[in-house]
Amino acid sequence: MFKPWLPFEWIVAIRFLREGRMQTVFILVGVAIGVGVIVFMSALLAGLQGNFIARVLSAQAHIQLLPPKEITRTLHPATPSEVDAAIVQPPLQRLKSIDQWQSLLTTVRDMPDVTVVSPVVGGSALAVRGSASRAISLTGVEPEGYFQIVKLPEKIVRGTPRLTGQDILVGTDLASELGVDVGDKLRVANAAGVANTLTISGVFDLGNKGANQRSTFVALRTAQSLLGLPGGVTSIEVTVRDVYAAETMAQRIQAATGVEADSWIKTGAQFFAAVSAQTTANTAIRFFVGLSVAFGIASVLVVSVVQKSREIGIMRAMGISRGQVLRVFLLQGGLLGWGGAVLGCMVGAVGLVLWQHLALNADGTPLFPLVLDPKLFAMALGLATVTGLAAAYAPALRAARLDPVEAIHG
Fold first, then answer.
1. Positions of the chain with pLDDT lower than 70, given as ranges
2. Which of 17, 222, 269, 315 is the most exposed place for a label (fewest CB within 10 A)?
3. What is the pTM of this model?
4. Exposed, middle or buried: residue 170 (CB in 10 Å: 0-12, 13-18, 19+)?
5. 363/37 Cα distance (integer angstroms)
6. Contact, 381 vs 341, CB < 8 A?
């Protein structure tokens, strides 16, 4: 029967592992549990983090470009002989358009890593239906671009996300309070008394009662007319490829254009801090589990060196070099790490599949999507193998330095 040829170091390393079967089994199980925990927790936290970010960023842009805020300043400082009786008050922040927003839109759209750019007109208005009225937040958008940023069509519960010049989309709670539904007319007026009667084309649910009570969406030109900004926009919404690079991209846009650029990282600092804390916790879990795996492998190999001292001495007396002895124990560490990692990846995958089927929402859907990323399993295999090699280095060095005569007489 044909037997594959193996180098001397591989033959001896596998033989040592077979002779200490119980030790080998225990350390393989220990490594498998450690790697399984790393795979399961990494995928779980990544899925949880991705779900949080998807929920938050599905209702807002990654970066928002705004017109500069108005400030006041005194004409000249008072001299010692003058009485400084001037009272300087901050100006009212009136609704203001971004200067030359069309060229700014083109400039930002052409930047690398920018995916979608959409102009928006936003302001306050009053929705009137018979004797009932409610203060609303009126947002004018171009549906083709804006719906790529805010997935509003996915949140429509009745009607369609149609936005022509005479259409309006309203939240579920606002529709309930005003007693309106799809197809009904709604009168919308601004503070100056300019009004327009619009038809409700759709009712949406943003998953937040406050937002559903205030938010409304109309076509861009309709909002420009109602809010007294003909041809103007109050903000430009931007999305980028890497959501975690949004702040860096915002600073780059601000430096290039001079407009105020706020990223979701800046405006949602507390949320981003929570996301960063999750990432730190995941890294800490990996580190301490990896450390326990390393100590487990090292302890087994230290015992193996003591038990195999006589065999090591005989091999050295027969002409085996110190480098070969070193490689024998390094191979043992690498094999233990790799074998345990393979089992651990299986354990982690099974745990993730069970989680998907057992941890469910009230409607029977999974709590959040989990992805069995091949990169995660490859990382776990590589990390465990390298950890095994690193853990085996000290015992291997000790074995290589054994004096043959002392080891034999040992």
1. 1-6, 69-94, 407-410
2. 269
3. 0.67
4. buried
5. 29
6. yes
